Amino acid sequence: MQAPMSRIKRLGFTLIELLIVVIILAILAAIVIPQFTSSTKDAQNSALAADLSSLRSAIALYQAQHGGVYPGAVASSGTGTCVAGNSGTVGTGAALSVQAIQDQLLMPTDAAGDACTVGDPVNYKYGPYIRKGIPTDPILNSSAVAVTSTGAPITATTAGGWAYDTKSGQIITNNTDTDDKGVKYSAY
Description:
It contains two helices and three strands; from the N terminus they run H-H-E-E-E. The chain is mainly alpha-helical.
């Protein structure tokens, strides 16, 4: 008599088991990926708030040290004692204001607002107020500065970057879009 055939042990997974695992992984991915997207937007919003806070602090400190005058309200180079070639840039019109803001926030200045690339403890003893340049707006990736001199509240456009008034010292992000909570970026 012959022994009954024993069952052969199966090795590996069946197609149904593999499909179930793939479906479970797809469900988990569908749950996790949107959370990463919202955390990216939250990080951008936090970076925007931090950049605005830094810019506003720098502007307020400049104003306090320069007799109530905000950056960009006066030319950044003049008749100061800065060695030729080291002084702030002279421009005209709107370019003058934008360049003056950059010079006065990024370079040491004297009491009159003249900027010099080299500070000294007697004349160019104020600043620099920002070390690494005007920050890039994290929402639209622009570091452009739109300058006004009216003293009126600033109205943002969709250009990106920053909108700044040299009379009031107000600075906002130049963006009319809203965040995921419905707050306009220009209201940060």
